[in-house]
């Protein structure tokens, strides 16, 4: 069944990295991100590792919809990039998530700073990419982030001269334009980190 193009798509890829070529692998991952940024629909990318003693890394990237994702995945640039890393990066598994669920992928993994390639080490896989939390938990997390930000934005816009006389559509448009990037890049990632134990807890 085809994935809906109306939703953003997050792709999580598991790879094993040769621990003797960590510096090359780190530069290679960054090069992949740099290439993807030039493609329409690219919304962000990064990588995390399974644990301090694991050579299993998760790379995540997000695109606006299925069409833009496939343009990247089927591009000659990505094919060249993948080929250049085959000597030290072995893909284990790839998984796609649509919409907001992508925020909750690999929630328990450890972030790796690309400036510290020596942080990767060898060892057994410590955890797979966890399943997304139940939708009711996702809804609560989104509300926890959205409510105070919406309240703050509404309060701040109240100081704009004549703002209360703007048409309703224009007021909502301005508020959502201001809120969307803040929620996407700062609030949602922070809230999911703070609530990670609860999100991962089994029912």
Automatic annotation (TrEMBL):
<feature type="transmembrane region" description="Helical">
    <location>
        <begin position="172"/>
        <end position="191"/>
    </location>
</feature>
<feature type="transmembrane region" description="Helical">
    <location>
        <begin position="140"/>
        <end position="160"/>
    </location>
</feature>
<keyword id="KW-1133">Transmembrane helix</keyword>
<keyword id="KW-0503">Monooxygenase</keyword>
<dbReference type="GO" id="GO:0004497">
    <property type="term" value="F:monooxygenase activity"/>
</dbReference>
<dbReference type="InterPro" id="IPR038762">
    <property type="entry name" value="ABM_predict"/>
</dbReference>
<protein>
    <submittedName>
        <fullName>Antibiotic biosynthesis monooxygenase</fullName>
    </submittedName>
</protein>
<keyword id="KW-0812">Transmembrane</keyword>
<keyword id="KW-0560">Oxidoreductase</keyword>
<keyword id="KW-0472">Membrane</keyword>
<dbReference type="InterPro" id="IPR011008">
    <property type="entry name" value="Dimeric_a/b-barrel"/>
</dbReference>
